[in-house]
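Review session, final week

We close the course with one last complete record, chosen because it touches almost every idea we covered. It is Mismatch-specific DNA-glycosylase, a protein from Falsiroseomonas algicola with 165 residues. Go through it on your own first, then we will talk.
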Amino acid sequence: MLPDVLGWGLRLVFCGTAAGPESARLGAYYAGPRNAFWPMLAEAGFTPGLLRPAEYARLRDHRIGLTDLSKTGRGMDRDLSPGDFDIDRFWAAMEYWAPRAIAFTSQEAGALALRRRKREIAFGAQPGVPGRPAIFVLPSPSAANGHWARMRHHWHDCARATGFA
């Protein structure tokens, strides 16, 4: 759906499950009108100011990358099937590009990538895995996440831990 924003020397790669309906329609990451991803990047200190979804490729200038676990599916998580996700492709890309850290932008994405049950995944920094970058699981910035306001501190914690704030 959306092209990866990856490259050498990235400090952090944000990874979601798949392009949401509005993101797929506009061809831009986290483009839903009520998605808090872009404002949260600025608020937490990942970027010096607010970027618009159409400017997603500019994240590389800040040593930040973007990808999704599904490059063929689109829609809300409930609309996706297990066959839409290519976890091996994701990990191969992370091994190749070797970012310092990965932040999953939902508990679902973290559970899928780490091959664990969602209820086994806590928000925040994950236990270290030898040979892998630091891993964070963040609460989804989607408007569908009713707990967003009280959980946004995890984004700030990730920014501090990865040297952005």
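Two points worth writing down before the exam:
The longest helix spans residues 87-97.
The radius of gyration is 14 Å.
Good luck, everyone.
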